[in-house]
Amino acid sequence: MLTHACVVFLATTPLGLTHDISGVTTSSVESAIEATQSSRQTQNVFHIMIDGLRWQEVFGGMQSGLLTKDNKVERPDSLNKRFGGSGPHERREQLMPFLWSTVAKEGQIFGNQEIGSVVRITNRYGVSYPGYSEAITGVADDARITGNRKIPNPNTSVYEWLNGKPQFAGKVAAFGAWDVFPFIFNQERSKVPVDDSMGPIDFGTLTPTIEVINRVRAETPYRWASASFDSLVFIPMLDWVKVNQPQLTFLCLGETDEFAHEGDYSRYLEAAHRADGYIRELWTMVQSMEQYRGTTTFIIHPDHGRGDTRGGHNDWWNHSLPKHPGCEATWLAVIGPDTAALGERRNVPEITHDRLAATIGALLGEDFRSAVPAAGEAIGEVLKR
Ligand SMILES: [Zn+2]
To answer: Does the domain at residues 26-359 carry the CATH identifier 3.40.720.10?
Structure first.
């Protein structure tokens, strides 16, 4: 999320893959959503975003070709030992064991371009604020959300919309490893409590753990100017959820992006591995709680991809369009009681990020497009058992 100042205009880069979408019509999407509404079990959603984690590592694990001194890999042996399995499947299971042992078996995962599945952003910038905004508002506002400047988001997010309904009021919260999130969620207007990872958590019921982390945040020098370490977001968030029991929770982990911008492939991989462990810990905790057991859906994806290594480029570490083509491509994982266990999806229609907000709404029994007609429609594929 760090870069990002200068951005040039260009339409989204085509991915060069075509897919047969003849089997999916609006009516089949609608009937899937209706079917979900009548038998819907989801009462809680955790929307987890891992900043700038590429689909290449998610589906293929560690990329051996990137273990170079240029990418700050000083000890390839130790990386190979941890993440260097014999093929892409073994490598991805080593890198993100929970994603592949549980989410991809009991839920669905999209975005492996090697087998005909594409997930992509529709905003034309490929940087973080437009990426987060598109995911939570259902709209790529290319005219107004053009980069990472701290401007209050003029668009209404599904978080704000649900928080304004009596049955969800006070049951929505956001935790993100970046100090731009209060603007992305338009905290002032939306009244959604937003933790920006830098200041203290000062909303809801606090615990001794949260108080300690607040102190650590205040007394520890920053490594990055506008973001903190994932541990300082995740640990207090976990405790906050335990005592406050929100129904819709946003979590952004950001180290993947920060270390990638530093060109440090080892730490990028370690951050991805740690994020996977955090998701496991959260899933395990919620399944042990009455409020969440069997009624909770996780939606997991990044805000953008990163450049790739086509044509001899070493562009994995950066993102933004049109300078770093490939960063429009992402991935999406969903697990929960209303999502069929179809695993890794192949040869399926492309999925775009402007559909995520309506999907979150539909999982919670609400039609976000009744409020924001311009938002993309809910993803029917993950809404039917
Ligand atoms: Zn970034």
So the answer is: yes
